[in-house]
């Protein structure tokens, strides 16, 4: 075996090998029939509380105790690291299983075998350009925005077993809200006062089976539900809501979450005005901001045959650019199909059922322990997607459906991608 690194993933005993990643990832894909099996990557944040829809054992949601960081995210198919400050090696980064029993970091595979993993777009993107994250918070997340990365949501009923159809996501700001009101909210946040900015937002009542696209610089506060989030490959965010719900009531988030990705030399009113100008106020005050970005499911009738149902949940081209897309599928008990798609890297994540995918076993578990290998997340690299002719998917259960999603990145579908309301 090639020489392993002298570190391992959190609570995992599997060796990690970067050396020769370009060749080892192709060996792993060949052994899997063109499919790579992923080691799960759970991510913790110090300012979040778990919604407990990620199927971890209860004691593993707070791995460092009740006052440490808490796990409310799982990153699927990510070639970047999470920016959490937890000091955990490889947090957020996808690792592939090699048949010889070691893990291959996805970033090493992408950068040493770009033609195999990503294809020609690597020369433009410098990476994969996207990943698919699950977010699962106990309370509504504070009103925040992403300065650089757009993201989207898939509201998947199979990952929301505690959902009771009464959750709202806050979006944008009401039309009466002025630039000076925003500046006052920023000043209150800096002073440690409750700025109540979420009370000025519009609200989307979550309906399972739909999607939503969030552009950059648009304020939003996701509901207390599990969301599957295809997004660009960044981990950037900035909070504008000063206080959020916690078991003990409303708590102050801290100014460091307001100052993220901000020039440290800015102080006083210069800092306030920069924080205000970073918000796209016109887009936030659009009275149709929810209608424009709500994505109703679109069934692919041609693909939905023989007990297989496949539908678009995330689609469209913001500002004319295809950034990412996601389809959710369901395979009836005892049925099988061949998954086909564009010549592009694809991330698969299963949320229910068991069976096979290519040469891999698929099983969705609950009571997951941190550091435990799973059989529910896979990646199809660009080259097998281009040349393989599809991957066989089998549901071995006689009673339960197989449910999963497939996610693609920039310029995967081209003219075949459905149009969204915001186009």
Description of the molecule:
A 9-stranded antiparallel beta sheet has the order 5-4-1-25-22-27-20-19-18. The chain has a 7-stranded antiparallel beta sheet with strand order 2-3-6-13-8-11-17. The protein has a 4-stranded antiparallel beta sheet with strand order 21-26-23-24, with no helix packed on it. It is of the alpha+beta class. Helix 1 packs across helix 2 (106-112) and helix 5 crosses helix 6. It has helices spanning 21-31, 106-112, 114-117, 122-125, 179-191, 268-277, 281-284, 289-293, 382-387; strands at residues 36-39, 41-45, 70-76, 95-97, 103-105, 131-136, 144-145, 151-154, 168-171, 202-205, 211-214, 220-221, 226-231, 238-239, 243-246, 249-252, 294-295, 298-299, 308-314, 325-331, 336-339, 346-352, 354-357, 360-363, 377-380, 391-395, 402-408. The protein is globular. It is built from 9 helices and 27 strands. The model has no long low-confidence stretch (mean pLDDT 96).
């Amino acid at each position: 075996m090639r020489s392993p690194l002298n570190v391992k993933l959190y609570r995992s005993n599997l060796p990690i090998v970067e050396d020769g990643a370009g060749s080892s990832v192709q060996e792993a894909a060949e052994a899997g029939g063109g499919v790579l099996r992923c080691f799960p990557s759970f991510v913790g944040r110090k300012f979040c509380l778990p919604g407990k829809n990620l199927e971890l054992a209860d004691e593993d949601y707070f791995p460092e105790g009740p006052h440490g960081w808490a796990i409310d995210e799982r990153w699927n198919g990510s070639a970047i690291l999470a920016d959490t400050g937890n000091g955990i090696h490889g947090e957020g980064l996808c690792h592939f299983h090699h048949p010889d029993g070691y893990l291959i970091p996805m970033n090493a595979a992408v950068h040493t075998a770009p033609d195999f993993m990503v294809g020609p777009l690597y020369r433009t993107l410098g990476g994969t350009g996207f990943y698919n994250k699950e977010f699962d918070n106990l309370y509504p997340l504070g009103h925040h925005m992403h300065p650089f990365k757009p993201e989207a949501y898939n509201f998947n009923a199979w990952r929301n077993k505690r959902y009771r159809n009464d959750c709202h996501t806050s979006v944008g700001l009401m039309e009466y809200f002025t630039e000076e009101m925003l500046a006052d909210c920023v000043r209150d946040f800096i002073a440690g006062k409750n700025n109540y900015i979420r009370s000025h937002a519009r609200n989307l009542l979550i309906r399972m089976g739909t999607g939503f696209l969030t552009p950059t610089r648009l304020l939003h506060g996701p509901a207390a539900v599990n969301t599957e989030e295809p997004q660009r490959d960044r981990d950037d965010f900035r909070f504008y809501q000063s206080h959020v719900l916690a078991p003990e009531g409303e708590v102050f988030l801290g100014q460091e979450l307001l100052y993220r990705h901000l020039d440290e030399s800015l102080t006083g009113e210069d800092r306030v005005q920069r924080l205000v100008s970073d918000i796209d106020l016109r887009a936030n005050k659009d009275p149709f901001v929810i209608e424009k970005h709500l994505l109703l499911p679109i069934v692919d009738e041609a693909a939905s045959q023989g007990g297989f149902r496949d539908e678009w949940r995330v689609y469209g081209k913001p500002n004319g650019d295809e950034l990412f897309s996601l389809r959710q599928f369901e395979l009836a008990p005892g049925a099988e199909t061949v998954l086909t798609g564009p010549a592009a890297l694809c991330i698969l994540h299963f949320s229910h059922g068991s069976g096979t995918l290519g040469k891999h076993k698929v099983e969705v578990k609950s009571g997951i322990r941190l550091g435990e290998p799973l059989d529910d997340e896979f990646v199809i690299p660009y080259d097998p997607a281009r040349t393989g002719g599809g991957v066989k998917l089998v549901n071995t259960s006689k009673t339960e459906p197989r449910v999963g999603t497939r996610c693609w990145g920039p310029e995967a579908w081209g003219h075949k991608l459905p149009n969204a309301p915001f186009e």
